[in-house]
Write a structure and sequence with these properties.
The chain has 278 residues and is mainly α. It has two domains: 51 residues, no CATH class; 214 residues, MetI-like (MetI-like fold). It is built from 14 helices and no strands. Helix 4 runs parallel beside helix 7 and helix 7 crosses helix 14. The longest helix is centred in the first third of the chain and has 37 residues. It starts with 5 loop residues before the first helix and ends with a helix.
């Protein structure tokens, strides 16, 4: 048998970790420096006098760039929050119908919904843009939210369907014997039991929506609806932006999904595993 070389594996892991974390560290490092310190040579691998002046400027300062960042932060929370709520509500109803209700073509329709996840999302970009243009939904919250919901709904339905099919049917049958309607059973029995799956689905949907770039870039050409991820990229082409402010904006864009992913990691993992096991 060939001798194992654990140092090779450890070296590979170290390389991957450094490859992933060094850009993040450099973004944080730059955001804590002044413009003079950033432009000095040689570069400062540690901030000489770290400060939060760039963040204060973005969050409370005057000028076009801070106001752009603040508006885009509001946009991304509105769009991601609305898309998450609508997706979870629709996915819950759809998953319950596929898991418990008997109707003709149920399996065919369910697998057709899942099959949409096999298509690359960007192949639908031009048709979606034309549809949004016809209905006047370009540069609107509604247009971006609808696109997000259409993209995330199949995955959310799949995850919640796995939760609901794993729940005992006897509890729901007992509710039917007591005279409860379908909606009463869903609201009072199924939802409390499926709450971990609903939380997982909401977190995953919110993170996916936060990470979107190309769709909001195409569907929102002005600041009225541009999310933070798009606004940061747009600043580089339209303004002479201080690198400190630009990196501080990048840290703000990373902070929310990072906190959610770290603090709610167990819900995310359970949601992904539930959707992969049938």
């Amino acid at each position: 048998m060939p001798r194992r070389r654990p140092w090779v594996r450890n070296l590979g892991i170290l390389f991957i970790v450094l490859w992933s974390l060094v850009p993040l560290y450099w973004t944080v490092n730059t955001s804590l420096q002044t413009d003079a310190q950033i432009s000095s040579r040689p570069a400062h691998y540690l901030p000489p006098s770290p400060g939060l002046h760039n963040y204060r400027t973005l969050l409370s300062g005057d000028g076009e760039i801070p106001s752009t960042i603040r508006r885009s932060m509001v946009n991304i929370f509105v769009e991601c929050g609305a898309a998450t709520i609508i997706t979870v509500v629709l996915a819950t109803l759809a998953a319950y119908a596929f898991a418990r209700m008997k109707f003709r073509g149920r399996q065919l329709l369910f697998y057709a919904v899942l099959a949409t996840m096999a298509f690359p999302a960007y192949t639908t970009l031009i048709p979606l843009y034309r549809i949004m243009s016809v209905f006047g939904l370009v540069n609107t919250y509604a247009g971006i939210v609808l696109v997000y919901v259409s993209g995330f709904l199949p995955l959310a339905t799949w995850i919640l369907h796995s939760y609901m099919t794993s729940m005992p049917v006897a509890i729901e049958e007992a509710g039917q014997v007591d005279g409860a309607s379908r909606m009463q059973i869903l609201w009072r029995i199924v939802l409390p039991l499926a709450w971990p799956g609903i939380v997982s689905t909401a977190i995953i949907t919110f993170l996916f929506a936060w990470a979107q770039f190309l769709f909001p870039l195409v569907l929102s050409s002005d600041l009225s609806t541009q999310p933070l991820t798009v606004a940061i990229a747009a600043l580089q082409g339209r303004h002479v932006v201080p690198f400190g402010l630009l990196n501080a904006a990048g840290v703000l864009a990373l902070a929310v999904p990072s906190v959610i992913a770290v603090s709610l990691n167990r819900y995310i993992v359970s949601g992904l595993l539930s959707g992969s096991v049938k």
